[in-house]
Task: inverse folding
């Protein structure tokens, strides 16, 4: 999608520090990290919000979650713990309208978030 920041990162029109990519997904470092690890996992296909997911997307979302777990394992904090978050729409503070799974880890995280 032409005006989408994360589509531009996926297309390499905007630089980012990539962590992983495959046929369906791209993962990259958040530009404003909230923890020692803050990675964003996005589908290559533009999907604006969680509300736009289709029944056929179950596998895609599962891959996103599993990718977070694999990155946590690779970075050595899978056993200590970590957080995965999808923000959806204004009340949750979604600021980029291309779904992304936040992976936060590497420190103890407070709950609940603000
Ligand atoms: P949201 O608030 O939509 O759930 O999360 C958007 C995330 O994208 C934020 O954590 C923000 O720091 C990150 N972000 C915004 N602009 C950029 C950018 O240009 N590059 C990268 N790597 N992350 C970005
Ligand atoms: Zn997009």
Result:
């Amino acid at each position: 999608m032409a005006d989408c920041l994360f589509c531009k990162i996926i297309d390499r029109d905007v630089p980012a520090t990539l962590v992983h990519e495959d046929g369906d997904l791209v993962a990259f470092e958040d530009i404003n990290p909230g923890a020692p690890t803050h990675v964003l996992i996005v589908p290559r296909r533009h999907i604006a919000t969680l509300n736009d997911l289709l029944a056929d997307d179950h596998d895609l979302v599962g891959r996103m979650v599993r990718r977070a777990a694999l990155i946590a394992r690779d970075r050595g904090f899978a056993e200590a713990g970590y957080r995965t978050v999808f923000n959806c729409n204004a009340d949750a503070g979604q600021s980029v309208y291309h779904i992304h799974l936040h992976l936060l880890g590497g420190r103890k995280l407070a709950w609940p978030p603000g």
